[in-house]
Amino acid sequence: MILKNLSLRNFRSFESRDFILSPGLTVVAGHNSRGKTNLLEAVFFTLNGHGFREDREEELIKFDTEGTSVRGVFGINAKEDTFEIDIRYKNGRTVKTYFVNRTSKRRDFYTKDLVKAVLFTPDQINIIKGSPSLRRDYFNKLLSVLDIDYKKKLTNYEMALRRRNKVLEKHSNIEALKEELKFWNEYLIKESRYLVDKRREYIEYLNSNKKLDSKEFSIEYVKNEFTQKRLDEVFEKERIIRKTMIGPQKDDFQISVSNGVLKKNVHHYASRSEERLAVFWLKLNEVKFFERTGVKPILLLDDIFSELDLDNKMIVLGLVENYQTVATTTEDILLKEIKVEKTIINL
Ligand SMILES: Nc1ncnc2c1ncn2[C@@H]1O[C@H](COP(=O)(O)OP(=O)(O)OP(=O)(O)O)[C@@H](O)[C@H]1O
Ligand SMILES: [Mg+2]
After folding, report:
1. Are 2-116+295-346 and 130-269 equal in CATH topology?
2. Each residue's pLDDT tens digit, 10-44
3. How far away, in angstroms, is 37 Cα from ligand 1 center?
4. Most buried in the list 13, 155, 174, 200, measured by CB within 10 Å?
5. What are the C-alpha distances in Å from 87 to residues 14, 16, 151, 238?
6. CA distances in angstroms from 96 to 54, 90, 156, listed in the order given
7. From CA 107, how far away is CA 159, in angstroms rounded?
8. How far is CA 302 from the centre of its chain?
9. Which residues contact 150 (CB under 8 A, 6 or more apart)?
10. How far apart are CA 201 and CA 195, in angstroms?
């Protein structure tokens, strides 16, 4: 499945632009602030129904306009399908509509058969360098794309957790508190089990694909389970601090790298290039995982070449040859360096 054309109307800085993409590599070149990342985000948006930088949906709409629409034409064998998303912003609310071949569809239906995107950005280094919450975010987003039920259960879990915390804040009477917590505990135990199982399965998948270059990566799932036994253990403490203390909202994931002799924790001991390699390990496995569903993903590379050392550059260039790719760059040098056949969009 190849994205052939993309039409943007009032998307971010673009008023009205149409782009033709290569089935191989498209390089989006231009000086700073010309809209390179906006264009990449438009591709991501067409595939996912959201961008990768906004806090609020309306940020995707061009300033001083009332809505945006982005349309992608996809080629599947000899057939063409049009996927379009439209956002209107009125009275402080956004309304989003999905269309497949100009007929409006539910979001699940829209994304079901669509090719997946794997995004590479320089700030993904924070998955390694940052707090556990950034790693949880990474896996939550990925698993939500892979599995609609994961997304639903995560939303349910987070909503129920807020309700449980409200109950803890409200009561000082032990018996009344226990009684009201009962419902939320049972509900959260059930929903959390699904989240933990899916996280565990994906971690097992990563650990069955350890090799990258001359290195071997592995990942440990540091679980924080939500079980009745653990709830009983922390009940007194929770009653005092009036907040839920356990559960997968506190899970962590720890990555290690080994060169065959020494194994070390990447978050604490890796060099900058080893940190980047660890991100690639996660990302390359994302690519392989999507590919197992039978459809090759589209790679979106946002300004990642300038900071890479030669080894990492070679890994990325190796990938680019095998997948439809859109890559942004400010550097002319890069255009010469990439020998792969390419279409260039100058912004
Ligand atoms: N909703 C919006 N409406 C209008 N302009 C916007 C909107 N959102 C972002 N912009 C502007 O679009 C411009 C281009 O942003 P973009 O991030 O795509 O630049 P870029 O070419 O990737 O730059 P860099 O090389 O610095 O990464 C910026 O000046 C930004 O402020
Ligand atoms: Mg940019």
Report:
1. no
2. 999 999 999 999 999 999 999 999 999 999 999 99
3. 7
4. 13
5. 15, 15, 22, 42
6. 15, 11, 22
7. 21
8. 14
9. 143, 144, 194, 195, 198
10. 10
Task: Give the whole-angstrom CA distance, residue 213 versus residue 118.
Answer: 20
Nearest-CA residue for atom 27 of ligand 1: 32
Cα 114 to its chain centre, rounded Å, is 16
CA 12/CA 40 separation, integer angstroms: 11
Q: DSSP E strands: which ranges in 197-329?
A: 211-212, 215-222, 252-258, 263-265, 298-302, 325-329
d(CA 69, CA 15): 10
Q: Is the pLDDT confidence value at 101 over 90?
A: yes
Length in residues, the chain: 347
Ligand 1 pocket test target in 9, 10, 28, 37 with most atoms within 8 Å of CB: 37
The number of the ligand 1 atom at minimal distance from the alpha carbon of 347 is 21
Contact call for residues 37 and 121 (beta carbons, < 8 A): no
Q: Which atom number of ligand 1 is nearest to the Cα of residue 32?
A: 25
Terminal CA-CA length for the chain? 26
Amino acid identity at 121: T
pLDDT tens-digit series, residues 255-309: 999 988 999 999 999 988 899 999 999 999 999 999 988 889 999 999 988 777 7
Please tell me the distance from the alpha carbon of residue 140 to that of residue 147, in angstroms, as a whole number: 10
The CATH fold assigned to 130-269 is Glutathione S-transferase Yfyf (Class Pi); Chain A, domain 2 (1.20.1050)
CATH architecture, domain defined by 2-116+295-346: 3-Layer(aba) Sandwich (3.40)
Query: Is-contact 26 32, C-beta < 8 A?
Result: no
CA–CA distance, 104 with 126 (Å, rounded to integer): 37
